[in-house]
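Late entry, evening session. Most of the bench is empty. Finally got around to the prediction I had been postponing all week. Sequence below, unchanged from the version circulated by S.P.
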Amino acid sequence: MVRTRAPIPGIVIAVWPWMLASAALAWGVMPAVFAEDSPVPAKPDPAARIKCVKAFLSGDPAKRKAALAEAAKWPAIPAGEAIQEIDLLRKYVPKRTVGRDAKKQPVLRGVEKWNVDGKEFEYQWAAPKKYDGSRPTPMLIYLHGSNGPQGIGPWDGWAASQGAILVAPTSPTRSYWHPVAGATDPQIYQEGFFFTFLEAWREKFNVDWDRVYLSGFSAGGFGSWWFALRYPDWWAAVMPMAGGPPADWGQRGPYEHVGKLPFYIWHGEQDKEVPPDLDRSGVEWLRKLGTPCDYTEYPGGDHNTWFGKDPKIGIAVVQILEVHRRISCPKRVVWTWDDMWLKIFPKTGVLRGAWWLEMTEHGDYARLEGEVTAPNVLELRTKAVKAARILAFADLFDLTRPVEVKWDGKPAFQGVVDVDFALLMREFAARPDPHRLVLAEIRVAKPGGK
């Protein structure tokens, strides 16, 4: 449980750790019971905390499990007393080995296959010649079209030119990546498979999570839109080709979610297989909302016009990988909820937020906007939202000072929030991202409760 000091009188604030059920599919809450006379756990000395964090980062599963159990016993720690431990997590760099062949030469490309609960997983990959498993390396993800995987060229060359790893997964249906009526039935579609891939890549490669780029062609272009709009906090840039946002979203798509995430989109004007209308509509929405969006439409071009016919595409991809880095902690986040989406896609991950903001109680059509307007001051602007959760990223707030939250102009929270190491380490175990250190969690409710 996270301690807070000096809350605003009359406003009920509950702040407690939560268990991440999946790396990205659910932001679940672990219920907590509060009691006025509950004994406060003894605070471990700094040396013991540092030892525990080092064991957690050792790479030994048994030590990590023991460290998580130990941290769960700790009380909240004032941020000023936890600087060294936080710094260890911030500077963490995993070590990955590079495989060798019979001649002891590095293996820099291959195909990986495995089975999880009866489901087959497969991806092709290629690493640059100078890949070093001890250093974080950028990664380009390429999603194939509805005809299934057809090799990884020229993607591997484009990625290698920027020293990036290329990964080309195979969708469970070997065709589509997002819900499509008659193919990946929207009523049964589940997207957890994609994060099984991300977990596998995390274990195999030393990935620079600030430089992960998402692209795809045709059905893979649709998949790029889908995962960008639903999980915008993962990507440095998105590059859909001959695809579009899902038609079922129509004018009620979650375009506000992506914020300043840059999009680069290519499509043929005369594409008969995937007409450019959806891309055009999506581009129009992104531009209205201020999202960086570069759209190229080839006059007279068909479905395959871009592929191998425009050398500028490769140049553009290389430049995109060189220039863009993920916005890991934006100062402004917007999330929307539309019950229509759940009716269309009932078994997709129920997402109510990204980055550091989530709505926890809301109406059928809701909007939550959070913006840091001054140091340690967060303003929430809402529509049909009754309660929200804020993750105190290390790069968002200075927890040595009081944090203030305003809800539609009214005070909702004010106080000093201490570091919850159990939460911090659980989050890091699920998503070991040094730029996503979750130091605490703040729950706020709409003032007045109406």
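Two things to note before I forget:
The radius of gyration is 23 Å.
The chain has ten helices and 16 strands.
Will write this up properly tomorrow.
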